[in-house]
Every structure is written in C-alpha cells, then in structure tokens.
Amino acid sequence: FYEDIKILGEQEFPVSQLHLLEQYMEHNEIFKVKNLVQEIFSEELVKKYGSAYLRIMWIRILNILLHHYDRRGRNAAEIEKLLQSYNLPDQIQSIQEIRQKMVMECVSMESVTDANARSKIQMAVGYIQEHFGENLTVNDLAEHYGMSPNYFSSMFKKEMSRSAVNYITELRINQARELLYHSELSVVDISKKVGYEDSQYFFRVFKKYLGMTPLQYREESRK
C-alpha cells in the first residue's frame, strides 16, 4: 500500500520474512514461527519505524492467517473472530505483549486444525486402500480433502511415518506380489491392475523395492 511504502521503503519491506512465516505456518513449524515473529517485531525495528510499523506488519500477518484459514476450510465464525483482531496493535501497549499475542494468533489454531487434518488423513488412507489401482496423485488427494498439497503431504507423513507416494507404492507392490504368486496374469496385466500403465516403470519400481524382477519374484516365491 502506498501509505505503508512511505513508512517502509520498498527495499526495507520484509517481504522474504513474511513469505517464510507463511511457509512455516503451512508446515506447522511452530518453533520457527515464534522465532520469526520475534524477529519481525523486534524492539529495534519498532523504534526505527514507530508504532505505524506494528499496524503495517500485523495487517500483513492477518492476511497470511486468513489465507491459511481459507486453505484449511475454517468456518465463517472462526474467520470473523480473526478479523475482529485487526486493531490488535492499538489494544496492547508493551512490545513483548504484542509479540506474544501475535505468536498465539499464528499458532493457536494448529491443535484444532491438526485434529481435523488427522481425521482427513485417516479418510484419505481408507480411500487410497480402496483405489490404489487407479491414477492417484498427491495434488488430487489434497484437493479432495480440502488441504494444500504441502500440508497434506506433511500431515500424511506425520500420521503414517511415510510419504503418501511411498504408501501408495507399498500397497501396489504388495498387491503385485499377491497376484504374481496366486495368478498366472502377465507382468503387463498385473502392472495395470495395481495402477501402473507403464509396465517398464512398474518393473523398475518392483525391482527397486524387492531387489528382483517381477518374474524372478514369481519363480522364487513358488519354490
């Protein structure tokens, strides 16, 4: 905003710090969020630019929070409550209190959000188990459950101790092993059944996971 630029020159505006803050919030890196908020609202910067600096930076952070809420499907009441804090810098006197309050605003929603996200991840796991033979992508799964791809991936790994891609691959390889042992289907047909249209790619993935080709596995498992 033009009025803000009169207080903070273009070269001085902490664009990179705000971008980092958004990334830390997206990945639920609370410790980094706290440290960065302390840095953005340091006494040195507040003294240098005056009380207007608090308003400018809080409005920027509020905007990040609103995007964060929207991506995670928060309801209208929660968003309205957040909007009511737009004049937060005018309500608090001490810089320490302002920093503490702003950190709380940035991280307070995480426990509820993570609980909601965990339930969505469990639903996603069930969906993957039923549809791993189809064309599944992390982006599609994240969109289906109303999460950003980065947040979905982060929460999936947190819940399942492996990435979504690795989880899908493990299901596919395990199913391929069953089909190789119990059926006479060709490797090409099995690759399609477990979600790989490209049989050569399936061949490489299978060998990477088990150290042998699909046909070698079939031969070894039937001895």
Write the layout of secondary structure elements.
Blueprint: H1 2-7, H2 15-26, H3 30-40, H4 43-49, H5 51-71, H6 76-83, H7 88-91, H8 95-107, H9 110-131, H10 138-144, H11 149-160, H12 164-182, H13 187-193, H14 199-210, H15 214-221
The number of E-state strands comes to 0
Rg from Cα? 25 Å
The coarse silhouette is elongated
- Residues in helix, %: over 70%
Uncertain stretches: none
Question: Which percent range describes the beta-strand content?
Answer: under 5%
| Pattern of helices and strands | HHHHHHHHHHHHHHH
Question: Can you offer a commentary on this structure?
Answer:
The chain is an all-alpha fold and about 220 residues long. It is about 75% helix and about 0% strand. The protein has 15 helices and no strands. It is elongated. The model has no long low-confidence stretch (mean pLDDT about 80).
What's a quick, concise take on this entry?
76% of the residues lie in helices and 0% in strands. It is mainly alpha-helical and 223 residues long. The model has no long low-confidence stretch (mean pLDDT 80).
Q: Could you name the key traits of this structure?
A:
223 residues, mainly alpha, 0% strand, elongated
